[in-house]
Write a structure and sequence with these properties.
34% of the residues lie in helices and 14% in strands. It is built from 14 helices and 16 strands. It has helices spanning 5-21, 40-49, 62-67, 84-89, 91-101, 103-106, 126-145, 178-191, 202-208, 215-218, 239-253, 281-295, 384-395, 417-432, and strands at 26-30, 54-57, 74-79, 111-116, 152-154, 156-158, 162-164, 172-173, 195-199, 227-228, 235-236, 260-266, 312-316, 372-378, 445-448, 462-464. The chain has a 9-stranded parallel beta sheet. The termini are far apart. The chain binds 2-acetamido-2-deoxy-beta-D-glucopyranose (8 copies). The site of one 2-acetamido-2-deoxy-beta-D-glucopyranose has 5 residues, from strand 7. Its main location: membrane.
Length: 465
């Protein structure tokens, strides 16, 4: 059908007006890797109390979708990573997934985003990378077939899809994925008017280099520190904008300057291991409140390279999740404790001005690198069978890591998996820290400043300076 020029013009005009008013709205990632979290119906009440405009889940859990029925909360669901390879090869399987997990809920749950996998291009299974865009296309066409027109299809990327992000104008996708994956992905996103979803964590950039990056610059608190990109002359006042613009420039370099960026995750940890810098309630509250203020501001701020562009977002995460593997920070990204109480006051609608948050924040005590001795022990409450696996791995790394816990040796007693693992973790860390060994062991270990040695058994330690 031909569209009269006048109608086209009217449409363009209306679109401009409505998009100018459409400021960013902030949602929350609802991760469920905890054994002590509230049920979905309670979680939805808590989302409302935070004034979250949206929620993102890491699957399409029907129990959660049922709890979201007849609410105003926009919902993002996800195709699990392990289904991507098969879906990329079979339209029938894609149709079936949409038929089962999306169609029954669409009428009364505001499903608006369907993300295919999570950080696939960081997943060690390289084969899946090449299945990603074909799977996205199949899912889109299944949605079309089911007339589920309001759902945008995307996939969240970590910022390590970039091989260069500095200066922002030098933003470039990794050469292993730029041509074969990013280009067809951007073509798909551009054609379907979807978004480039990205997980942005100034915390990790700052924590990796706190000497050279200013903390206030990472927290949106810097008054006098700015960075001017020498190529574009654009001036930056925070690390977040720098990262977003690096992505924008990388997309432009591949010929797609107009694809919108959607923050799939951002946040700051409210706690972590003793040797992890800057993870505390104080910084977490400042960062998340500032993100909300910025992304919901009217008039819309955007970024230096994209002034006035609205940015939609999801904070990470709803709860502190006690079963997330990795360093302690991973289990401390929540806005809420597992019992549902707020870790600090926050209003995701952006309607509460910062001065209305009444309760004083606890002082930040770990904004400087930890100095002193540390040991690595089995984490409290860790799954014993996983600890046993980590123990045998640590002992297989050589250099006599585990000699003292052999039968009859000085650290054999007490003969328990947890005790032996704590010895082996400390011993492994002490030997291999210099060459990149960490105190993590898939999340079953944690560092401690408290010497676990007793009797004749002295645990090796790591000294941080
Ligand atoms: C993918 O398909 C293969 C072959 O049909 C099947 O064996 C496998 O279980 C499927 N994988 C998943 C995760 O469903
Ligand atoms: C720009 O990015 C390239 C890699 O894409 C890198 O080799 C180069 O060093 C970067 N330039 C600057 C000034 O950092
Ligand atoms: C991206 O989409 C816009 C609007 O639909 C279109 O005008 C443009 O040509 C597309 N860009 C590319 C490189 O395909
Ligand atoms: C920024 O201001 C702070 C406090 O006013 C001051 O201590 C600091 O030296 C200033 N930094 C720069 C780069 O000007
Ligand atoms: C950036 O600023 C410098 C000095 O003011 C000027 O010479 C240059 O042309 C500017 N570059 C751009 C891209 O605006
Ligand atoms: C919820 O848990 C936190 C952290 O364990 C605790 O400080 C707080 O008092 C608890 N709140 C309620 C209402 O139980
Ligand atoms: C511990 O982990 C193993 C292996 O992943 C799992 O089969 C088992 O159910 C877990 N046990 C508990 C108590 O969570
Ligand atoms: C293992 O021990 C040897 C001898 O003490 C030492 O030279 C080597 O650096 C150690 N290897 C590692 C990875 O620490």
């Amino acid at each position: 059908m031909e569209t009269p020029v006048g109608a086209m013009f009217m449409f363009a005009l209306l679109f401009c007006i409505s998009s100018a008013e459409m400021a960013g709205k902030v949602g929350v990632n609802y991760g469920t890797l905890g054994n002590n979290l509230p049920v979905p119906s309670r979680s939805v009440e808590l989302l409302k109390s935070l004034k979250a405009a949206r929620v993102k889940i890491y699957d399409a859990n029907p129990k959660i979708l049922k709890a979201l029925r007849n609410t105003d909360i926009q919902v993002s669901i996800m195709v699990p990573n392990e289904l991507i390879a098969n879906i990329s090869k079979s339209q029938a399987l894609s149709d079936n997934w949409v038929q089962t997990y999306v169609a029954p809920f669409y009428a009364d749950v505001k499903i608006r985003y369907l993300l295919v996998g999570n950080e696939i291009l960081t997943n060690p299974d390289i084969g899946t990378w090449f299945n990603l865009v074909p799977a996205m296309r199949r899912i889109k066409s299944s949605l079309k077939a089911h007339r589920l027109h309001k759902i945008k299809v995307g996939t969240p990327s970590a910022t390590n899809v970039l091989e260069s992000s500095f200066p922002p104008s030098n933003g470039t996708f990794r050469s292993d994925i730029a041509a074969p994956i990013m280009k067809p992905m951007l073509q798909f996103l551009n054609r379907t008017k979807s978004f480039f979803f990205v997980d942005v964590y100034p915390y990790f950039s700052w924590a990796a280099d706190p000497k050279n990056i200013n903390l206030d610059y990472a927290l949106f608190e810097s008054k006098n520190i700015t960075y001017t990109d020498p190529v574009t002359n654009l001036t930056y006042t925070n690390l977040f904008d720098q990262t977003i613009d690096a992505i924008a420039f990388a997309m432009k370099r591949l010929g797609y300057p107009d694809v919108r960026i959607f923050i799939a995750e951002t946040g700051w940890p409210n706690g972590g291991d003793v040797d992890q810098i800057g993870c505390n309630i104080h910084n977490a509250a400042i960062y998340n409140r500032n993100v909300v203020k910025r992304l919901t501001a009217k008039p819309i701020i955007g970024t230096p390279a994209r002034p006035g562009w609205p940015i939609q977002s999801f904070l990470f995460a709803l709860y502190n999740e006690n079963q997330k593997p990795g360093p302690g920070t991973e289990r401390h990204f929540g806005l809420l404790y597992p019992n549902g109480s707020q870790i600090y006051e926050i209003d995701l609608s952006g309607e509460t001005p910062v001065w209305e948050y009444k309760k004083p924040l606890p002082e930040a005590t770990n904004n400087e690198p930890y100095k002193g001795k540390l040991w690595c022990v089995a984490a409290k409450g860790a799954n014993t069978s996983l600890v046993a696996t980590a123990l045998s791995w640590a002992c297989s790394q050589g250099n006599k890591t585990c000699d003292p816990i052999k039968p009859g040796k000085r650290c054999y007693k007490p003969n328990s998996v947890i005790w032996h693992a704590s010895y082996a973790f400390s011993s492994y860390w002490a030997q291999f820290q210099k060459t990149g060994g960490t105190c993590s062991f898939n999340g079953v270990a944690m560092s401690t400043p408290k010497d676990p040695s007793f009797g004749h058994c002295k645990f090796p330690s790591v000294r941080l300076a």
